[in-house]
Structure to design on (257 residues):
C-alpha cells in the first residue's frame, strides 16, 4: 500500500473506533519518516472534513511510558480541535481501549521554529501552562505497536482536556512538581515533572527540533502537550479519574458510556 492508502485506512479506524492490525505486518519496509507522512495525511483528511490543527503533543518522553509500550524514543503527534474536551467528561462510544495520563500543556504566544531553538526561546514564547490530561487510544489491537505503527496512528492521540486554572510559566519549578493519579479513589500512578525529559520545557524544545526536520513549526496560540508524566491508566465507563498536581491543581475526568 502507498502512504496515502495507509493514511486513509488509519483515518477510517480513527473515525470509527474499530481496532486494526499493525500496518507494519504487511508493510515491513516503512520508515519512521514514512510514518510521520502517513500521520500528516491522515490528519489532513480530518482537516478536510472541517477539523483544524490546534497544537502538537510529545509522546514517550518519560522512561515509564517508553517501558510500558516497548518503544524507546520520543515521538510527536498532532492535536485537532475535535480532540479537545470542553468539559471533563469522556464518552466511551467510538473509543477502543482508552487510557488516561497526566500532562502539562504549554500554550504559546509566539511562533517557534528551527533546529537551534533553546529553552530560553521556549520560555519567551510561553503564555501559560495548564495542568491537563490526555486520553490516548491506540487503534491497534491490544494497544500493541512498533515505533512506525504508533507514529502513523498520530501517537494514539484521541482527546485532551486542559484544567480550569492556567499558570504563569514562572509560577513554580515544574520539574519538581509531584503528580498523582487516582481511579475511583485508588492511587494508581505517581511521578514528577522531571520524569519528562528532566524538565517538561525540554519536551517543547525537542518537539520544535523534530518538527524542523520535516519543515513544520509551532505557531502562536497553539497548545503543546509535553508528554505523559506517569504511565497511562486504563479507563472504563463509570470511572472517575482524579489527578493532583502538587497542591496547585486537581484535574478530574468522568467516564461515561
Ligand atoms: C503513545 C502516545 C504516548 C505520551 O504522553 O507519552 C503519549 C502511546 O502510549 O500509545 O501520549
Ligand atoms: Mg500523552
Amino acid at each position: 500500500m502507498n502512504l496515502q492508502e495507509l493514511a486513509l485506512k488509519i483515518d477510517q479506524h480513527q473515525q470509527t473506533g474499530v481496532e486494526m492490525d499493525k500496518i507494519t505486518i504487511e508493510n515491513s519496509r516503512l520508515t519512521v519518516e514514512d510514518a510521520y507522512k502517513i500521520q500528516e495525511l491522515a490528519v489532513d483528511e480530518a482537516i478536510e472534513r472541517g477539523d483544524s490543527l490546534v497544537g502538537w503533543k510529545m509522546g514517550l518522553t518519560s522512561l515509564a511510558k517508553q517501558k510500558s509500550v516497548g518503544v524507546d524514543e520520543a515521538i510527536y503527534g498532532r492535536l485537532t480541535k475535535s480532540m479537545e474536551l470542553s468539559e471533563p467528561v469522556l464518552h466511551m462510544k467510538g473509543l477502543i481501549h482508552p487510557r488516561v495520563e497526566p500532562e502539562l500543556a504549554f500554550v504559546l504566544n509566539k511562533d517557534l521554529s528551527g533546529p537551534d531553538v533553546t529553552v530560553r526561546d521556549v520560555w519567551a514564547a510561553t503564555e501559560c501552562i495548564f495542568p491537563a490530561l490526555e486520553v490516548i487510544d491506540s487503534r491497534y489491537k491490544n494497544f500493541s505497536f512498533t515505533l512506525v505503527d504508533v507514529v502513523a496512528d498520530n501517537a494514539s492521540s484521541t482527546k485532551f482536556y486542559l484544567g480550569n486554572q492556567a499558570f504563569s510559566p514562572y509560577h513554580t519549578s515544574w520539574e519538581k512538581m509531584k503528580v498523582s493519579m487516582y481511579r475511583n479513589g485508588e492511587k494508581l500512578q505517581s511521578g514528577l515533572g522531571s520524569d519528562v525529559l528532566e524538565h517538561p520545557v525540554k519536551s517543547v524544545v525537542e518537539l520544535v527540533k523534530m518538527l524542523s526536520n520535516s519543515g513544520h513549526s509551532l505557531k502562536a496560540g497553539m497548545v503543546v502537550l509535553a508528554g505523559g508524566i506517569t504511565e497511562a491508566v486504563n479507563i472504563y465507563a463509570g470511572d472517575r479519574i482524579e489527578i493532583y498536581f502538587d497542591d496547585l491543581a486537581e484535574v478530574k475526568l468522568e467516564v461515561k458510556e
